[in-house]
Every structure is written in C-alpha cells, then in structure tokens.
Amino acid sequence: MQKVIPAILTNDAKKLQEQLQVLKDQSYWVHIDIMDGKFVPAVSINLAELRDANQLFNLEIHLMVKKPEKYLESCNTIGAKRVYFHLEGAKDPKAVLLAMEQYQFERGIAINPETTVEQLTPYVKNVDAVLLLSIVPGAQGNTFIPEVAEKILEIKGLNEKLLVGMDGGVGEGNIQDIFTKGADYIVAGSAVWKAKDPIVSLRELQEMIY
Ligand code: DX5
Ligand code: ZN
Question: Ligand 1 within 6 A of 68 CB?
Fold first, then answer.
C-alpha cells in the first residue's frame, strides 16, 4: 500500500491535466477531490474529465457531494479503484453502500472532523476503507485538527482489517505522529503542490515514514 497519496483539488480541467502529468510515473495512486458546491461551497472538475487517467494511476475518488449515489456510475466508467462518499452527505448511507456493491471499486466512507466513530459504526461492516478528514473540507491548505488522529485506533478496534486514511493538513510536521497512531496512509495536497518541487516533496514525505 502506498502510504502518501497526492491529492488533486481543482475546478480547472487544464490544471488537472498538468498535475496528472507531474505525477505520471511518480505515484501509483492519485486522490481526486470532487465537490458539488452543495456539500462544500466549492465546485471541482467533473468525473468525466478523468477519462483516461486510470491508464496511468489507481484512482481514489473522494466525493464531497450530496446525493453520492448519483456519482457511482461515473466513478465506475472512469475505472476508479476506490471511492469514498461522505456519511454526512448521504440521506441513506446503507443504500449507497448497497448500490456500490455492483461495482468493482473498493468502498469507502469519509467522515468530517466533527463526526464521531460511533456515528460511523453502523455502516462499517460492508466497507473496505475509512477516510478521516482532519481539516474542514472544501479546499487545500486548511488547518490540521490534531484530535482527529485519536479516531484511528477506535476504527481499527471495530475491525482491524479496515483501511484507515487521513486527509487534510498533513505535512512534514505531523506525518510521523499520524502513522504512529496507526494510519495506513495519508493524503497530501498543499504539502506537495506548494513545494518548489512537488515530486521531491512527495518523496521526502514518503521517506519520513520508514
Ligand atoms: C479537502 C480535500 C483534501 C485536500 C488535501 O477538502 O478532501 O483531499 O485536497 O489538501 P491539504 O493536504 O492541503 O489539506
Ligand atoms: Zn480529499
């Protein structure tokens, strides 16, 4: 499992292609942030823009949207490997999980910083992965909320086989602590893209874990 997954969050199709080109041959996985302007204020590129990206990467799709069930077919069309929907964005999370069963991708639930593991518990049985948001979602560069890391062990306590990722505000200053607390991987946006050389920064983050 790749332990640092770079995130692309943009509403600009050209920037998406540029960032994919930068990451080409440098990362197996890419995390794509999809936003609908309703679940979070910002809007992102559409899933259709990812057309052939699955030829180059394993695509992890993070749906920050309301009515996530409407996006599943498109996730399948673009060949996504793992899809997260937000517990807070779904009216009926069990129905979304059921709808996901017809597809090959891994099924994941993401939770906002204020959502508790207790609220997630009824749904984890049929889930492959949990994504813990450690910032207020909707943008890159938001402030890390350290208390979120305490949820990692709680989730592993429910089922040690669940993959647990942390998304938001992770960089050199906190990455080691997050892995010490048991995360399987982290997602990095600004720590990669704000660096002078994104690939060097990605490697440095990866090296800090071992
Ligand atoms: C936030 C997104 C994150 C974001 C991470 O809404 O879900 O994936 O791209 O960016 P940083 O690492 O800058 O917080
Ligand atoms: Zn994300």
Answer: no
Distance of CA 175 from the midpoint of ligand 1 (Å): 14
Asked whether 135 lines ligand 1 (CB < 6 A), one says yes
- With CA atoms as reference, report the closest residue to 30 among 43, 45, 144: 45
The model's pTM: 0.98
Chain centroid to CA 49: 18
Which residue range forms the structural domain that includes residue 14?
Answer: 3-207
- In tens, the pLDDT along 64-122 reads 999 999 999 999 999 999 999 999 999 999 999 999 999 999 999 999 999 999 999 99
Strands 163-167 and 82-86: unpaired
Please report, for the domain that includes residue 31, its CATH number: 3.20.20.70
Does ligand 1 have an atom closer than 6 angstroms to the CB of 60? no
Please count the structural domains in the chain.
1
